[in-house]
Structure formats: structure tokens, C-alpha cells
Amino acid sequence: MSAQTPDFELTDSDFKAVAKKIFDVSGIVLSEQKKSMVYSRLVRRLRALNLDSFTRYLDLVDNDPNEFTNFVNSLTTNLTSFFRESHHFEYLKDELNKLIAEGVPIRIWSAGCSAGMEPYSIAMVVSHLLGRNLSTYDIKILATDIDTDILAKAKRGVYDIAEKKNIPDDYFKKYCKTINEDGEEKISMNAELRNLIAFNQLNLMGNIPLKRKMQIIFCRNVLIYFDKPTQSKIFDKFHQNIDKEGMLLIGHSETIGDRSSIFKLIGKTTYRKIG
């Protein structure tokens, strides 16, 4: 069965080719149920490039590195919001208080950070806890994603005014401001938060060249896009790159699978490294 409009047809063979390319580069599994999503996202590229078929578009993807990047970006963008799954931020506060009391340097990784709401939410909690000591404490947040377009948006730290409802009032007053951009009301993250975060492109399927081990890793609502063997490989990479007894937080619909020997459950979708 092919998804059709008067202008374009996404054949079964084209869809399979798309799914294979995305799996090969990112590990993300596109099931048949994702066909309409694939169509709606890629058809924009066909129209922008004035191409008349998905077959021709896929030929271009194979031969043009810039369009290959656009292709990956089109299919890997995820929805997110500020302080999503709020229980994780309570666990984060407890873990930070413990680490701060120990006086150790702290590194936090937001893996699959999407548009940046997660790392900015983490940064608000960090800044609030440290207060005046923030400038002297050795703490950094690494935020990574495979999608270069979404990373550019994350670095800007500017969001629709509708996102204001997801940010606690005391945090909003301290760390955000309302701006006017092209006649629309937006919210902008302040410099203090931006200075805490380093945004970088990173593919979880590739090498993970971290300079030091992480104390806390957030990887939420990312693993659901991977098959089970790939999930296990990513958990292994997290285990290699997280400090002794470091904390891992995953999404509400995700599980540790067959890696319970290296991460133990300590709270709702919250784990601690074993070994």
C-alpha cells in the first residue's frame, strides 16, 4: 500500500530505502506505521528542491552530503517540553545535593537533547541549588543530538510563549525573559543558563568521545526509537561513560531491558551504575 497525493507517491520500496538509510546512520527503527510521518516530513524537501519523485530525492541524498544531513534532520526531530517527567527533577535535586556536599566536579549529559528544553530545565535546577556559588563550582552540562537543525535552535534558547506554562514561576522570573521576535511573543533563556551548557552534535550509534566520565546522564524518550539490540549497545556506552555509582534517567515508556546487571533501579525510570 503506498501513501499518495496528487503530486507524489511514496512506494513501498522507497519507504524501505528510507528506513534502511535512517537505521544505518542512527539506529532508529522506522516501522510501517511511520510511513505517513516519513511522507509528511520528506515531502517538504521534495518541494523545496523541485523534485518530482522520492526515488530522485533518495538518489540526491546518496550523492549530496548537505542533503543527507537535511534528510537525517527531517526524520530524527523529537517533541519535548520544559520539566517533562517532573519526578526526574526531584531525583536530580537529591543527586546534586549529594555531589555538592562531596565537593566533586559535576558533569551532566543530556543525550538526545532535541530543542534544548531538557538541558535548560537541568540548568535551572543546578543554578537554583548552587546560588551564589555557581560561578566558582566546577559543573557543566553537555547537551547532544544528531540533528544539527534542532541543535541550532537549542543554542538560541528562544521558544514559543506557550512553553511558559511548563516552567515553574520562580524559575521563570529568575532565568527567563519575554521578548518580541518578528511580531510574536517568545521566551528567552538567560546567559547564566547558556553558560552552563555545551551543545554538540553526537550520534549515539557512533563513537562517544567524552573527555571525562559523567555523574548524571539523561536519555529520555530517545531509546524508544531504537531496536532492542541497539538499545543494549547504547546502555553499554552509557555504562562506560558514567562515573562510579552515576545516575541514569530514561523515559517513562522505556526500560533497561537486558542490562539490569550494569544498572540498578533506584526510582521511577531512574537507575544507578553497577560496577
Descriptive overview:
The structure is a single chain. Helix 2 packs antiparallel against helix 4 (65-76) and helix 5 packs across helix 6. The chain has two domains: 3-76, Chemotaxis Receptor Methyltransferase Cher, domain 1 (Orthogonal Bundle); 87-158 and 189-273, Rossmann fold. The radius of gyration is 20 Å and the shape is globular. Residues 1-6 have low confidence and may be disordered. Helices cover 43% and strands 22% of the residues. The chain has a seven-stranded mixed sheet. A three-stranded antiparallel sheet has the order 5-7-6. The chain is built from ten helices and twelve strands.
In short:
By secondary structure, the chain is of the alpha/beta class.
Beta fraction: 15-25%
The CATH first-level class of the largest domain comes to Alpha Beta
Structural class: alpha/beta
Strand line-up across the major sheet? 8-4-3-9-10-12-11
